[in-house]
Amino acid sequence: MRLILLGPPGCGKGTQSQRLTEKYGIPQLSTGDMLRAAVKAQTPVGLKAGGLMARGELVPDDVVVAIVADRIEQPDAKNGFILDGFPRTVPQAEALDRMLKDKDMRLDAVIELKVDEGILHQRIAKRVAEMQARGEAIRADDTPETLEKRVHAYRLQTAPLVSYYSNHDLLRATDGMASIPEVSAEIDRLLGKGKTAVAAAAAVPRKKAAARKPARRPGAARKAKAAKAAKAKRARRKGAAKATGRRAAAKRRPARKTRRKAINKAGRRG
Ligand code: AMP
After folding, report:
1. Residue/partner pairs of 241-249 with CB below 8 Å, 24 or more apart
2. With respect to CATH, is domain 2-211 assigned 3.40.50.300?
């Protein structure tokens, strides 16, 4: 299973990704987490990304694409993954398409968590409070001002992915305003619904599928044969009726009412 969770900051992507990770036994690939780790470790990528992240701006496409390309090569991602926070721009989505195509892999679905922007501030405030309660360090970009910028970046650069994946027939939208268990149940339902078609497509390697003959409708040949036999039977009957003159005789035979009248008349006469 290869999934993307799409939605603005604070929509619940992280929470749902973690649950899906447990359910399907596939890793959650959060570019935000990977970049934060790089910043912490002060790697060249981290040094490049740190300032941009703190300002709520996106890290350049080539940097993030390289990180993801490297990550999906890891053995734990062989059977699938959940992308959380990637892709965030159309060029990133196109790069992902190329990456997967090269590996003869495909995405199964893109889950969009739809939320009212008004609630994002409350959610981030809640996340900050929870992190503080656990004694964890607060994210540098979880401030009201930076959140505003991140939401703006989402609207401008990431929201176009909704139509991108809708055009690719991969988008499944869900109401991210519902409670966590409700959103989880809806995601399960959406994945279950798409599974048959997705699994069927995945079961047939693409090249073989293209070479296959178009499927015949079940029973079409049998129906055509039965119709032909019925037609032949009707023709035989018609021929036999003609030969015996039965039809002509039937035509000449007066109707029942007329015959009775004639009998009565004859009786009266007799
Ligand atoms: P997140 O944890 O997903 O909210 O990401 C935190 C920050 O990391 C974002 O505001 C961006 O600065 C950066 N970031 C994460 N993922 C990407 C991405 N796919 N493209 C560009 N920047 C990203």
Report:
1. none
2. yes
